[in-house]
Amino acid sequence: MQKVEAVGNWVSKWFTLLVVVVAAFSFFVPSFGTAIAPHTSLLLGVVLFGMGLTLSRKDFARILRRPWPVIAGTVAHYVIMPGIAYLLCLIFHLSGPTAVGVILVGSCPSGTSSNVMAYLAGGDVALDVSIGMLSTLLAPIMLPSLLMLYAGQWVTIPAASLFLGAIRIVLLPVFLGVLVHTIFGDRIAAVNHVLPLVSQTAILLIVCAVFAANHAHLFTAQTALVIPVVILHNLSGYGLGFLFSHLIRLNYPQRKAITFEVGMQDSALGATLAMQYFHPAAAIPSTIFSIWHNISGSTLSSYWRNKDLKKEQSVAAKAVLQHS
């Protein structure tokens, strides 16, 4: 078990690089990813089942005890990211599957990577987890509603299918994970140690499927526009998330948590839904987002961690001088 956990830690450390390697491999050897493509929803179900296994009644009770920051962060997430996505589509004149893909990833719940980034940055991890959980539970309603609002001008949105699909792909695995955790309790603790590796492997396979499905369309002018759009989308989410949390006077650790919760998306869900309900090209923004937000999130968390460390060292140095 320790070896599996060690491998999981190694994969976590080099995850962004592994995403790039897998994407390149699937581009040059698309047959492997093509075979995986029909099973992306199952792979995402594995990820979300793992998320459910880590949740308990205490997590739900925490929302009831401190509802305001959780509700505020969730509302900010579902207002800011889809709105930015729509504006970027207009500014960059995106259309068709590319526009739908950008709005789709903007309409997804927050990504699980944000929990790690909030922890590394010294943010309020409990708040981060609570917002991520609530935004995920609301996904079956918010995803079709936001897509109809923002993307309906480019494609027909299968709202009913998306709603039922989100329940099947998102809520059902999470519910089953929570149920298993409730029944078996601490007896599944050993399983939780391998969950990161299982989830990351599933996400890498989803990335492989997306790049294989789009290998003939990756190097086009429309696709090239996706990279700056994704970068602006993510960074704008961070900035507006932090500004929003500052305006409603949350404390510094809470601002960090909401910054990551707003700016980081469940890109694996976006890619899966794009492959299943739209065009494979609509999955490209989600896949690029998956690579980029891990880079930007790691950079931002490192900046905050180093800034806090320097502040602590400065305070300690002043205290020493005062007592000398």
UniProtKB/TrEMBL annotation:
InterPro entries: BilAc:Na_symport/Acr3, Bilac:Na_transpt, Na+/solute_symporter_sf. It holds the Pfam family SBF. Its main location: membrane. Keywords: Membrane, Transmembrane, Transmembrane helix. It is found in: Membrane. It is a multi-pass membrane protein. The chain crosses the membrane at residues 12-30, 36-56, 68-93, 99-122, 129-151, 157-182, 194-213, 225-248. This is Bile acid:sodium symporter family protein. It comes from Loigolactobacillus jiayinensis.
